[in-house]
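Hi R.,

Here's the chain you asked about this morning:
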Amino acid sequence: MNAIESLIFYIVSFILAIFFIWQIEKIYKKEEKQKNDKAKIAFYTIIGLGILIIISALRYQVGTDYNNYLDYYIVYSVLDFKDIISYANELLFILVIKIAYVFQEPQIMFAIIAFLTIYITYRAILTQKEKLSITLAFALYVFLYYMYSLNIIRQALAIAIILYSYKYILQRDFRKFLLMVIIATLFHTTALLFLPFYFLCPSKNEKGKKLKNLIRFLTIGAIFLIITQLDVVIDLLSQIGLFSRFSLYNVMDAQGDNKQVIINTILLLVFILYSKPLIKYNEDNRMYLFLYIVGYVLTLAGFLSPYAKRMAMYFNISEIYLLSAIPRIAKTNEQKLFIGFMIIVYMLVMFVLSAYYLNLGDIIPYQTIFNKGGV
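And here is the predicted structure, written out as tokens:
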């Protein structure tokens, strides 16, 4: 496919996947349940998620890191577990490689990671089905974040797991939250840095709000300080075995694309403007807003290092919940339709700009393993 054909292919495929999720949402909204509803939900889920999984599983030379992951497959597939434990950190990712190696097919590695990423993200969105439109939230994920799962596949899966862990922060269930962070870390080491936010995120009816707000303010201030000394911090982290690969990001500073900061600033202003009705509608939005602010601060660090911008994704993905909730606080149907329309325009424009004009992640042109010689 050429660039235009690839863009159309992605958009049409995304719309089809979203259509089947919409069918699921209609079933959830029905007042009277029918016997075959579970079968319908299962069918629509398989088709809707399956479209995205197949796109990822069958791609060839799509994504900047595609060949890097083939190298991972070649290196780790032949190592025994003793050597793997000695030299590697992300053991669950290597387990996926080992499973793919049983079938002598690296594409199975991409397929497994794609399935886990998309399914876990969908399950995370489903936890909010009583409070927002799962169709809109899923559409926002697909157009704004799915493209990263074709490139930084390990971190995209870690982000999905962290997104799912949000619910355990809200439920104040530290054991399950810790388990999620550990699992995410075993796919991508950077997920471990999300652990302290269990204690920093605002919760319902929390005690000592003034002290906790001060701690949060100081945390955001500390992030600003880290931004100004990011080279030093990365050098220090790279001395620790667990974070040794961070040194790679120091030589990548000039490659960071920071146009996203403008969009994030506009979104932050919108979220702050609607913060009171958002929190009144759903107290959980207080936490999502806090996470987005942290993500915004990290996004600013993209001026110094693309690593910081990638870290921000663990927090910025909360926007899919915040944006999906805004139509729910509109006073009239006309306002709801207008806001929904503007959100759809936003995610379409962002995808076209990112994937087509800026070619972020090199996901265009798209080709499959069946036409390796195609354009």
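One quick note: Residues 3-371 form one domain.

Cheers,
M.
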